[in-house]
Every structure is written in C-alpha cells, then in structure tokens.
Amino acid sequence: MFNRNQYQFVYLILVVLLLTLVSCSAPQSTDAITPLTSTHIPPTYTSIPPAKTPIPPTPTAQLIAADFEVTSDGSECNVSGPSSVPPGKYRFILNNLGSDETVSLWWGRLDDSHTFQDLLDLQSKPGVFFGQPSWLDVSTNHPHQLDTHSSVYNVYLTEEGEYSIHIGGRRPTSLWFCAPLTVGESPSE
C-alpha cells in the first residue's frame, strides 16, 4: 500500500490541480458598457480626426465606449481617435472587416531616436511582415471579444513618447502599421 509520504504527495498534487482549475476559471472584467461612435477615415500619418459617425449595434454584442477604433479591411488599417494623449489607460476596439484571418492589435513605443516613418521605411510594401527592430518596444494583451470580427483591448500607455499602432495577422503572416500616437502631458485637439 501507500506510505505516509506517498499520501502527502498525492494530496499535494490534488491541491495544485484544484488551484489551477480555480484560477483558470476566474471571471472576466465587468467594466461599464457605454455606446461607441466611429468613422471610416483614409489613412493619414499626421493627425487622426475624432470619431463622428455612429456604428449601428450588432445583434451579438453590446458596444463599448472606446478612445480609439482600429479598422482593418485586409488591405490597410485605419485608426480613429486623437493623435496625442496624456499617459493613461485607453480602450481600443479592433474591427476586422477584411476576412476571416485572425488579426491582433499591437502597440509599440519607439525609442527617442526613431519615428513612425522609420517603421514604414523598413517594409518592402504594406502588410509584409518583418522582424521587430530593437528600437521598438512592442506590447499586446488578451482582448475581450465583442463578436467574431471585433474585440476590445484595454491598453496602458504609461511612458511618454511616440508609439506605433499596428495589427498583425497569422495566416498569412502580415504586419500593418495603422498610425502613430504621441503620449505626452498635453494632448492635441
């Protein structure tokens, strides 16, 4: 039969498994849900106009107020929202209108000696993937899915500087630079 040490070992394994199951089933955030407004704009890299046109509600999701809306149609990506913000927490909604391709929102802080244009210059053409340069500190997180083509990202932009808002696809591997974003003390109007 089992000796005392073996029983203790089995008991420890069961406790670890139970704790793992409980931590994996923790509830999601229940932030307040408010209406969202948006507009489709042609890509510009100098400024981003505020959202003006409301998006009709979808039957599968409630809309959430967002500071930024990133829209991809499979051949380009656009951002609606301010071009400069103070450090803080922001909501980004990613709308994938182009295909069933899985895309993710990414943001990266450029070091002070590089610009958003430097990122654009590294691509042979829009959408072509390339390795991350050492002067770009890239982040992402797990989004809250609104429906099959829209997700919400809660983004903490805490360091001042120039950021790149971009999306990446998995099949095929792709990289789309959407717009620059300045994080600083005085936001632009």
How is this structure best summarized?
Helix content is 15%, strand content 38%.
Structural notes for this entry:
The protein is mostly beta strands and 189 residues long. The chain has one domain. Helices cover 15% and strands 38% of the residues. The chain contains two helices and 13 strands; from the N terminus they run αβββββββαββββββ. Strands 5, 7, 8, 9, 12 and 13 form a six-stranded mixed β-sheet that branches. A hairpin with a 2-residue loop joins β12 and β13. The longest helix is centred in the N-terminal third of the chain and has 21 residues.
Rg (CA only)? 21 Å
Structural class: mainly beta
The portion of residues assigned to helices is 10-25%
Following the backbone from N to C, one meets helices and strands in this order, namely HEEEEEEEHEEEEEE
Beta-strand percent range:
35-45%
In whole angstroms, the N-to-C terminal distance is: 76 Å
Globally, the shape reads: elongated
| Regions with little confidence, pLDDT below 50 for 5+ residues | 29-63
Query: Overall pLDDT, averaged?
Result: 74
Oligomer description: single chain
The main sheet comes to:
6 strands, mixed
Total helices: the number is: 2
List the domain count as a whole number: 1
